[in-house]
Amino acid sequence: xxxxxxIKKLENVHLEKPHRVFTMYLNTDPSDPDQQGGEWxxxxxxxxxxxxxxxxxxxxxxxxxxxxxxxxxxNHYIQENEQHFAKSVVLFATADDSVWxxxxxxxxxxxxxxxxxxxxxxxxxxxxxxxxxxxVVLTQKNQIKLIDAELGSLNDTQLFExxxxxxxxRQHQGPHHADASMGSGGAKSSKQDEFQERFEANRxxxxxxxxxIIDKQAKQYGWEHIYLVGDKKETEDLQENMNKQxxxxxxxxxxxxxxxxxxxxxxx
Length: 268
Known about the structure:
alpha+beta
């Protein structure tokens, strides 16, 4: 289920007492000056304890039991995942598990906690608007990398390489390696020159042939925003031959950079 579907499902949740939905936006961003000592732990503890104290005063024992069940689930999730926290955690939960949504995200949030009849979706919707399903297409001569991302988080990557013998673009399996066309040792320089000449002579045709493959991947991923990153001529050739709308073109060579670094530089 994609994020749109999850949000629509959450929008339809309306519970009656003693059942409630717990909403949590937790700022865990280590780069935030207010988070240098892991202050999120204090915010979480206070947020949970405040509801518990309120429900104790209300005297509704069944609602209090429901909240305690949710609190246990939340604490368990935190303990299981805190080593992998990024900038935020967004969580929605009910005691009976009819609602459970928990994501560690690379986007900042303002810490907020709610115990209400419906999930509070404002911040999640704002984040989705800021960073919807996004594709980054990185070019570097006979290699093209696709990055699939959403809400600032990396979902998937694919690497396509041009087989210089068959002139077919193939999805690369296994670890990314240096371009084999470059050769090695004393032959390296002449191999590079030979490859460069061949590439320039055939670049437009080769990139025209890969454009439908990228369009197909964009459709399968459901990309709403697409960024092209690479050499000016390469990105121009791709943009001219792709059917999908391109949001932005960035003329930098970032194919070998770490994916999260690419997202931060390209999408921010």
